[in-house]
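Note to self: keep these together.
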Amino acid sequence: MPQRLPFLALLVTLTSCLSSQPRNVMNVCDMFEDRRSWYEAAAGAEQRWNVPIPVSMAFIYQESAFESRARPARTRLLWVVPWVRPSDAFGYPQALDSTWDDYREATGNFIARRADFGDAVDFIGWYNANSYRRNNIDLHDARNLYLAYHEGNTGFERRTYDGKQWLLDAADRVQGNADRYESQLTQCRDALEMTWFGRLLD
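Structure:
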């Protein structure tokens, strides 16, 4: 048993590092440099769904700030006692149970988890591709894609976001973050595309 303790400690440390928030969520190049597997997952989702990497990353930043196990804050009973959560949204994409089930059924990825970055970024690509098909929202239009993501595509069609200034402000932030991430990614994408051997020789 004593011999197993160092291994268990190492496992806990590695798990903590993998699920912790990146150090600099404002810079997509820094995030991808720290976590090359995230770039590979985001690039794979971009290839499958044609949703630009900066848009997907801006969605995750808005929804969870890259916290793998994020949940909505609990409501308060009598302004003091922690009470129920307002929804069952969870993980990087803050996807609801029902929407996540739709994604798993549609893609056949029945073991997908919302706390897994690769699954989360693929989910966002899938959802935004549906928004393009249903509402003809340009896949670079992070603002309107986010409104459809938050309100659902039926809600977007009905303009249920009208009058929700907090949501319109959030959608503007998503667009601003997507624009910033896009500018940053142009500076580092070639390096991220290099193989490990190419990086060694660079």
